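Sequence in, structure out. First:
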Amino acid sequence: MVTAAQLTILQSPITAFVSTIFTSVNVKLNDSNYLNCHFQMQLMLESNGIMGFVVGSNPCPVPNVFAESGFDSSTSKKCDELLVWKMHDRAVMQLITATLSSVTMSCAIGSKTSKELWARDYLAAAGVYFVDEDIVILALNGLPPEYNTFRCVVRGRESVISLKEFRSQLLAEESIVDNVSVAPSYLTTMAANSGLTMSQAPPLQ
């Protein structure tokens, strides 16, 4: 038998907005139309009473901890509230992502709630943008020691490397690093199979 809570989960009214979103928001968010898109999205969310999901005034219910005595009616009610909230929040996320350009969508991947998804715009609202050079510097600083040579080569370039080229070269370097790390273990296995100790194994060229 389907309970009232389950029926609510199956029939979220928010999902109905997705098919008509572009009657309220006539642009897709990119790096040149933030203020326009944000203003339209805010009006749409507020007019439909769902702004609380993205600003935190309608937070996720705290999951009820199971009592040692077992599962009771209050626990069941809390679980239902949590499921319903998550369903509505996912619908809001779907609504927001429908207004993102393909490039902007890549920045939204990984968001777990509509609030996290909406928060991606805070830096843009403040007029803070990361250019390719800044992203490359941050990425280089986060690389492990095995990439020191690669780091020096990129930093020693006369011209600024594009993000697309940096990604391509980083993937190539990653493949090299992986192959180098496999070589010692391969030689160890070869030596063991031939009855040699590592001291007897031929030196690496």
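Second:
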Amino acid sequence: MFAIIQRCCFHTPFRLQKLAGPRLLLCGKDKTTWSPLGLQQLQRDVCLLSRTSRLKPAVIYATKLQAFHTSLPFFKKKTPAVSEAESQKKPGSLKDSPKPALYLSLAGLFPFVYVPVVMAIKGTYYPELAFAQVTYGAVTASLLGGMRWGFALPENSPAKPDWLNLANSIVPPLFAWQALLLKDITQGAVMIVMALGIALHYDVSLLPTYPRWFKVLRVIGTVVMAASLLATAFLRAVLE
């Protein structure tokens, strides 16, 4: 028993010996005497350190998991803390928008612009490209309509998940679905333009808490998409 205690004593980390404090009495070079109170305190300290060592990997894993779902530091845009009212009064522009939102939105406009440009350069109407454009417009209108659900569902959102907000978000997808059922591409394009206009009205007028840069981005994107769809319909009427 004395050998086990002696081994624990001389192989105990410095932090543990420090915790034992005055309860450890050294007598000679190789003899160590423990008081009962000091032995109980040592057992508690050993349990405390063992729990800390077991919890440390879990803390590290949780930190890594949180970092996995977070953007890298150089992707985060550092903006000064301003109130919601002040952010609404500030003049918004495309320069204020985050780069991922700006670049992805501009890239999403490419399929709309590509179709009428190719038809105008070739001087030929391609019904396959026109149908692909209408289909892509239907998907985009459904996405813009569903964003209202994502905005209204969080607990701290200024928009409540009531009948008005959730039902209005379904209107653009219904228009998009109806556009795909129409056999006439021109009518389908007009239906998509109506769906995009309704989604823009919701985002700009009915949800004023959106950032200013987002509203500017939505207006520019909707104008480009609607103009591209109408240009395709116009080229069909001219080239056919």
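Remark: Residues 115 and 198 are 23 Å apart (CA to CA).
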